[in-house]
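Hi support team,

I've been running sequence recovery on a batch of backbones for a student project. Most finish fine, but this one hangs at about 90% for roughly twenty minutes before it completes. I'm not sure whether the input is malformed or the queue is just slow. I've pasted the structure tokens below so you can try to reproduce it. Let me know if you need the job ID as well.

Thanks,
M.K.
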């Protein structure tokens, strides 16, 4: 008779804690643009109105991908807990800010900066003028969305974004935007589930 191999229990496993376990765990790693299809699929595969953890270690990418992921998190009613395991920068800030609970470590890094426009396409002057108009409007809307999701005053967001700033996990938590977990203070899962 073959013995069935069992995976190591998740940190939220009922065997390790009496705290209810999340329904799912997802990671958002690397450039969002390169993984748009995969990340969208992951968010669509989890049940609507379910709860889970999203781990972030992303330098960002297309603002449109960041907006799409944040929109899916909210539109599907996901009770997502975001955990920055390394970096969460640029467009990755949008899905992280859409999480209902956020955690960082002292070593977490979050880069806020103005949107950047890059195009390898040849375009006519009229099209470039329209892109400029749209880009300015989109930047204002993204700033407003981040400010609302994070409940961060627009002035503070502007201070961090212009010209740009690497915000440490310590600073981010000090603003009340996330809970800081300590990698050296015992069981991390207890820290997260106690503060969830």
């Amino acid at each position: 008779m073959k013995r069935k191999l069992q995976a190591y229990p998740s940190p939220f496993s009922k065997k390790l804690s009496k705290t209810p376990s999340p329904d799912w765990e997802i990671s958002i790693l690397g450039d969002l643009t390169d993984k748009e299809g995969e990340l969208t699929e992951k968010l669509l595969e989890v049940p609507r109105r379910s709860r889970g953890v999203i781990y972030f270690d992303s330098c960002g990418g297309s603002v449109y991908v960041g907006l799409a992921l944040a929109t899916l998190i909210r539109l599907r009613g996901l009770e997502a807990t975001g955990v920055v395991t390394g970096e969460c920068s640029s467009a990755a800030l949008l899905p992280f800010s859409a999480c209902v609970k956020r955690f960082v470590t002292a070593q977490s890094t979050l880069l806020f900066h103005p949107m950047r426009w890059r195009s390898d396409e040849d375009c006519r002057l009229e099209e470039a003028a329209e892109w400029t108009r749209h880009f300015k409007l989109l930047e204002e809307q993204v700033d407003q969305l981040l400010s609302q999701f994070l409940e961060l005053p627009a002035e503070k967001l502007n201070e961090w974004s212009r010209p740009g700033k690497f915000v440490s996990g310590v600073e981010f938590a000090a603003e009340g935007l996330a809970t800081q977990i300590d990698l050296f203070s015992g069981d991390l899962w207890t820290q997260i589930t106690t503060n969830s």
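--
Follow-up from support: It reproduced on our side and the slowdown came from queue contention, not your input. Residues 106 and 159 are 21 Å apart (CA to CA). No action needed from you.
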